[in-house]
Fold this protein.
Amino acid sequence: MASIQVQKGRKSPFRVFWIDQNTGKQRNRSFGRRKDALVFMESIRALENTLTQNDPNMTIEQAMHAWYIKATTTGLGGREPVERSTACKYNEHKNIITSREGQTKLCKLDELECENIRDRLLEDYSRAYAKKIFTSFKSALTFAANQKKIVNNPAQDVNIQISKRQRNANKTQIPSLEDVYGITQAIERLMRSPDPNIRPAWVRYGPLFYTLLYTGMRPTEIRGLPWRDVRWERGGIQITQGADQFNEIGALKTGAAERFIPTPSFVMQHLKRWQEFCPQGEHNLVFPTWIGTVESHQNITSRGWYPLCKEAGLVTPRGEKLVANYSLYSLRHIKASLEIELGRSPKKIQEIMGHEDIKMTFDVYGHLFKDLEMQDNADEAHELVRSVAKRLPKKNQVIDIYSKISTD
């Protein structure tokens, strides 16, 4: 495989080494500029791909298909097969690449052509999505190289960079403490609504959104939460499984996602009262549909989250529609921001949020951290939200809400 060595102090310091495919002997050539050496090295690599590949007629379409099959069956690089939701994303990437570049032969690919493919993606897609597509393309080429279809991955050094400025512009939107308090008050109003079409639904949605807000669970995790994982004696929730976009119960996103989350006592009271009304089903879920099956993310968003944002005044006109200012996932970020405000350490935040790597914690929440001592009282997050109104709710507030419903 062609490579470059830099020999300092020489007039032509950049030397390209390669194996002559005809004689089998090593050859080299020196260049004064790195740019010229790279261009020459790419020409040698392209020639190596043409002469040594097992299938000189293999196309990008075939390579993408082989990569997709490997990823979804036995797994890439010794890893487990990807989850069904990830497989769907990979399939989208595969279809985009094959529809645009599918008939190009691998032996014709060099770094310049890979740069052209990257640039064409950037013209038609957002930078973030183009990067995801191109990453899948590079992975397919790496798999082809491992399978000896080509000598090397010509896109190895071709990347899509996203600047820190752009990452900051796309920073996660986290509701303010005032907005959080507005959300909690809207939940209370909806749970007490005199409208017979609204109040029964919010017997379920109220505890659901309180649980999301004060635990930071992922929507997939709360949709797949069984009653056995509500640990009454410990005052919290154990996360052991989730429900994917196809409403199938399965393993969690990562190993770190399996965790115990201390939960405010008032949320545990809501859950206790909701359990009396909760429909039974195959998986004994905490928040199933009214017939006991897995609830969809779409239903929670359209029937619960959007009406809640509207009630809280957290919507913005966009054309003829009102759009929620925050996504359902914002409830997860609220939990992290509340814990940071209370002085939890980065490591504690990582554990609560179920992040595999603490780098993820800093990437998302690093700007929120303060140099405060770590605390461990789960109820403090609830007290922080209630402090906005400078008052405490009545002692029997949670019980009274359900008492009214049970007597209707």
In short: The chain has 16 helices and ten strands. Residues 371-375 have pLDDT under 50 and may be disordered. The longest strand covers residues 14-19. Residues 57-163 form a domain with the DNA polymerase; domain 1 fold (CATH 1.10.150.130).
